[in-house]
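FORM 12-B: Structure-to-Sequence Request
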């Protein structure tokens, strides 16, 4: 059994990890931390976990986590950075769901996250955790900086095109128009997440710059070795879970002469969690809700040279906790879908 610890067990991604790991056949929950709820049984806070999770919250300290094989950080930026070195040095593998180990350039990190990076050496050892593109590195990694939620939806939408040795699109003018449910903002109290603010409304945010922009560009460059430029606009939608990304690219001559639907189907043929839908499909967030799947559909409106790629994920699963468990499975040589076979909730 893999002994698992979670730092940040009271938040949305932490509790989603609990939901998934409670039924994982190879995982044993050893520690779940909270600063404010030490001693409280986890199932008292999350009745959905009654009779499945029988431990209590503990302090987010090394002492609580030292018997684990792997520790997930489901915490705000800056927390994993402060605590990972001690764990990694003790031979405990770390998967950070936050952004401390995603951006390789510390100046970029400081610019977008407003804090200096205190562990540049550890950052150098970290593997960027988009499992479909970095599986082999993740297997060996001691530390994974898991891909963000929007970056997962957008990179998986573009990967087959970007992976192609000869560019198929104009890689300098990609547009990703993305919509997220409110759980993307976390469980902490915030005015923008109030029912009366977010419901019956729909708005763009971070239009002039969002911290996922440099991450997406870095991720695309990691895949292709070429620099890509993207206009990324996130929106807040009045629903709880889900991300829908509509990504627009201009096909070049080579792209226009390629069967893009077949390219996607072949590229993802062996990916358990990626569903390339039949031509013309319209995936909705409900079709992935509660599951680790991503569904992708391709369109060429009016047969023109713009390709529209629609991708959907559950931000808390494939965008966070599910992808984290997928990475853990890869690290511990388990089939990647172990404990992750939940079908989406319907309706
Ligand atoms: N929500 C989403 O869709 C996604 C979130 N993420 C990332 O995952 C991380 C967690 O997000 P989310 O679950 O939404 O956040 P929440 O705000 O819901 O939860 C944050 C958790 O972190 C704990 N925490 C806060 N500060 C500290 C600290 N200084 N030391 C230890 N624990 C701390 C809190 O627990 P307590 O106060 O009880 O100690 C709480 O359990 C973030 O980095 C986020 O960016 C990534 C992808 C998607
Ligand atoms: C709706 C909403 O607010 N979404 C968050 C993104 C989710 C998140 O926490 O981002 P990471 O993937 O970087 O961890 C935001 O835009 O800041």
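FORM 12-B RESPONSE
SEQUENCE OUT:
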């Amino acid at each position: 059994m893999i002994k698992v610890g979670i730092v940040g067990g009271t938040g949305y991604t932490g509790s989603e990890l609990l939901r998934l790991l409670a039924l994982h056949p190879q995982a044993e929950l050893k520690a779940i931390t909270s600063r404010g709820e030490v001693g409280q049984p986890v199932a008292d806070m999350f009745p959905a976990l009654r009779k499945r999770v029988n431990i209590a919250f503990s302090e987010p300290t090394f002492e609580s986590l030292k018997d684990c094989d792997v520790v997930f950080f489901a915490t705000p930026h800056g927390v994993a950075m402060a605590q990972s070195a001690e764990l990694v040095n003790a031979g405990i593998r770390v998967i950070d769901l936050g952004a401390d180990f995603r951006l390789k350039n510390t100046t970029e990190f400081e610019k977008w996250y407003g804090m200096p990076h205190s562990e540049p050496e550890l950052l150098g050892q970290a593997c960027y955790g988009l499992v479909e593109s970095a599986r082999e590195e993740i297997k060996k990694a001691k530390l994974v900086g898991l891909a963000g939620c929007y970056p997962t939806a957008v990179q998986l939408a573009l990967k087959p095109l970007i992976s192609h040795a000869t560019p198929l699109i104009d890689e300098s003018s990609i547009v990703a128009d993305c919509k997220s449910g409110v759980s993307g903002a976390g469980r902490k109290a915030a005015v923008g997440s109030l029912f009366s603010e977010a419901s019956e409304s729909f708005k763009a945010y971070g239009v002039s710059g969002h911290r996922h922009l440099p991450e997406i560009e870095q991720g695309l460059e990691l895949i292709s070795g070429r620099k890509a430029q993207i206009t990324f606009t996130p929106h807040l939608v009045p629903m709880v879970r889900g991300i829908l990304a509509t990504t627009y690219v201009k096909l070049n001559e080579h792209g226009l002469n390629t069967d893009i639907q077949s390219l996607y189907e072949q590229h993802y043929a062996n990916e358990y969690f990626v569903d390339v839908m039949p031509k013309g499909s319209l995936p909705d967030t409900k079709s992935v809700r509660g599951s680790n799947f991503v569904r992708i559909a391709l369109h060429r409106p009016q047969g023109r040279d713009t390709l529209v790629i629609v991708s959907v994920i559950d931000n808390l699963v494939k965008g966070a906790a599910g992808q984290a468990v997928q990475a853990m499975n890869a690290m511990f040589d388990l089939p990647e879908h172990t404990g992750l076979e939940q079908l989406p909730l319907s309706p």
